[in-house]
Specification:
The chain has 97 residues and is mainly α. It has one domain: Ta0600-like (de novo design (two linked rop proteins), Up-down Bundle), CATH 1.20.1440. The chain has helices spanning 3-25, 32-44, 52-66, 74-95. The chain is elongated.
């Protein structure tokens, strides 16, 4: 895969994850601590200091710390798992380089 097409793939996947995380962060039915983690994970994906694979790994780590919170709504947990699955693909794309 060329670097340009890989970059396009990373960008589109990042946008998908950011949409999911922003919907969690803006959901007032979700506890505030969970919304903060969603926002922080989304922000981590734009941290230019790191390559995409590291950004994805950082976001996954943040989400995994809160994923078993008993106060988390079931739908929110499902959204987090969807985000993690996309982030895992981004992380594995970085291993190919």
């Amino acid at each position: 895969m060329s670097e340009e097409s890989q970059s396009e793939g990373w960008e589109s996947k990042r946008e998908n994850v950011v949409q999911i995380l922003e919907s969690i962060a803006n959901d007032t039915n979700t506890p505030r601590n969970i919304r903060r983690v969603a926002k922080a994970a989304s922000d981590a994906l734009f941290d230019e200091k790191y390559p995409p694979a590291i950004r994805a790994a950082n976001a996954i780590e943040m989400i995994e710390e809160i994923i078993n919170d008993p106060n988390m709504p079931v739908f929110t947990r499902t959204q987090f798992w969807m985000a993690i699955s996309i982030l895992e693909v981004i992380r594995s794309m970085g291993k190919d380089t």
